[in-house]
Amino acid sequence: MKKMIMSIAVAVCTVIVMASCGGNGLITKGNTSELDTLSYALGSNIGYGVKYEMSDIPFDFKTIANGIESAALGKAKMTQEEAIELLRNYFMTTRGERARAIAERNAQDDSLRLAQGLEKAVRVVADPEMFESEEEREELSYAFGVDIGTNVMNSGLPIQLYWLNKGIADIQEENAQLTEDQINEYLQNYFMVVRPQQNAEKSAAWLAKMEKKAGVKKTESGLVYKVVKAGDENVKATDDRDVVVVHYKGTTEDGKVFDSSYDRGETAEFPLNHVIPAWTEGMKLVGKGGKIILWCPAELAYGQRGAGRDIGPNQALQFEVELIDVKPFAQPEGETVEAAPAE
Fold first, then answer.
1. What is the second-level CATH architecture of the domain 207-327?
2. Is 281 helix (H, G, I), strand (E, B) or coil?
3. What pLDDT is recorded for position 15?
4. Which residues are catalytic?
């Protein structure tokens, strides 16, 4: 884990910390008297990333901390998009140009000193000339903090900002309370063992609650569903190769929308053997023109791996689906389907 966490791509945990200060509802400024290991480990991991990948840049770490806190609490002076644009321009163009100019200056200076019989100068790794002004240093340091803080806010993790920022600072000051190996082991266990187990327990409780609602049924596979509108019983998907045309919205158990055809302004179309098992099964329960709500256990959705930054491992999901049309599978001419072997 020697690369900086620029995006903490994680889903919702069930560990709730002290009263919310803003952001995702799990972010707090923190209890300074008691170490919060998760926050400190994440901060230290970010700190090591900066140390390994950006040691040439003299960031103002107090300003980074300010950017992290303001963004994590939803009070940043710039958006994440604005911050990323500033950082992209600096890292893709300016950083290299400044580094080359500094290297050329140092080479000329060393040549002059050697000609005068002097030793080469001892220089700091993070040369102040990596920034053209103190204003630029402050702006980029703040933007760096805003990017991290926004990712923290969107992560759904129970983060204490004091300990996150202290983890970053302690690495820079070479005063870490945990070794790098301890940090890596803790984070690996948290994200591979603890968080998936928390998600599984939370999802099971949520599905059990949904199952008790009026009109809700459950299939043998564990799919929980409610037919809001039956649709045309004569036009239904029956084959996994059938194609459905739908409008849908997918949310986590906390109500966060992770995908929506409504937001895109167009229907979606796909064969039922190219989607998650919950859809393959669920879309056969309504007819054309119908509407259904699917509550999908993780094993019928994205399982232990999750999907993207919004769907964590072992996380149950909800889909509201309108079945606009069904296109039955048609065997292409000239092709035959082999009969199943006799048992």
1. Roll (3.10)
2. helix
3. 25
4. 248, 258-259, 276, 302, 319
